[in-house]
Amino acid sequence: MSLNIFQTLSSKQDYPIDPSSLLGGNNTVIMADPRKGKSYTAAKTCEQLCQIGIPFIIIDPEGEYYSLREKFSVLVAGIEKLENCDVSVNVEHAELLVGQFLESRVPIIFDLSSPDVEEDLTHEFLASFMAQFIRQESRVQIPALAVVDEADEYIPERGHKARGSDYAQFGKLVKKGGKRGIGTIIISHRPSWVAKDLLAKCQNWVLMNQTYKDDLQRLEDLTRIPLNTLMKLKERAVGEALLYGAMTKDQIVWAKCLQRVTTHIGTTPEVKPKFVERPELEDLLRSFRVEVERLTVRREAERSEIERLETRARNLEGELKKAEETITILKTAKEAAKMVTAPQAVRLESAFAPSPEEYDRLKKRVKDLEAELQDLVMASRSGVSASFSIDDFGNITTPYVWLTRLIDLSRVKAVIVKHLMENKGGSTAEGIALSYGFSASTIRDHLNYLLRKGVVIRKEHKPYRYFLRQA
After folding, report:
1. Is the same domain home to 424 and 313?
2. Which residues are 56's β-sheet partners?
3. Using CB atoms within 10 A of its CB, is residue 382 exposed (0-12), middle (13-18) or buried (19+)?
4. Is residue 91 part of a domain?
5. How far is the C-alpha of 205 from the C-alpha of 256, rounded, in Å?
6. Which of 354, 387, 420 is the last residue of a domain?
7. Do 50 and 189 reside in the same domain of the chain?
8. pLDDT tens string 275-293
9. pLDDT tens figures, 391-401
10. Which residue range forms the structural domain that includes residue 439?
């Protein structure tokens, strides 16, 4: 069983590659100038993996790989995007996606090309997914491949670009994937843009047309291939490559990528592959969409209930403080009345000192407030599972009437709409968060929802400002 990805330039014969040379911690670099065949070669490799049943994950920042489903059963997941995708996901669905991938072994393509998704949200999603992927792969150890296109966006060299929250997880994947059966393909335009310490952990090199001398010298340092050999890359046509490493048993092989069986979107953006019905995936997609919707509703309800409990707890603390201050004032007045002459004492005590019944009532009120506050604190810590439940059909059972309306409009969305009505000049997500005590990520999630529903609009400049739609 071998992968037929290339044919040699000299003999024009297929050059078979052992799949194990790409997996089990054997990391591969595909490097070339723009439009010289990097994504094409990676997609051809994934086509071959589909034919032998090896699952893979593709980080696709440009939306170029969804055409694989023309011939193969793959799941295309977009981060808050549905065009050319099977399902739209966000950070909360990362663990669910990993479980589906390891259970069904259906390849997943993450389409990150939506212009409306902020960069921080993308990094947060990938960090969460990769952390779960590495953790669960440690247990099941299924051979798999992770393809990271435009790798300089996620594992950049210091000085080229700020490293996101996902950098550490990608680094762990490259350095420790071997113990979990995971191989990685790193794709980029320039070697100087990608983290040098991670490139040094790669065993395979697929080097295509490269024209910058600085890049060729960097490749010489990393691969130990003589510079005069690497200089020949300047003459290579599109799709032609120098192969070197574990896949060639440390021999230099000049080869050309074979033709794909699916449409290559990278060079023909006007071609829109028809959505191919995949009967064997329909049940999986249907159940996955139901799980995503159910998880979203549950998390929304939990967040709103916790926020309500926290607000109620703050109000109770205020009431408790006022009651305690009242009792202190009354006690002080009573002691002061005792220190004056007898006639004055009678008058002062009658004016300030509470009756025994009033004093007992205040003490009971303080104890009741303390007990209610303690109950709220315990409820907030233990979650809201005891306050409501959601059955398999999405129906909510709860003693709180307001909770049933959370699906249509949460308290957070109402706060956002109120804030934008009062601020005609618009506001940022961070500004709204500071005004009401929520996290910026929570406000941003709800703003994106309101954007999609047409309730608010956004000005396309940094920092983004949001406005309530007037008409």
Report:
1. no
2. 145
3. exposed
4. yes
5. 14
6. 387
7. yes
8. 444 545 666 666 666 777 7
9. 444 444 555 44
10. 411-468
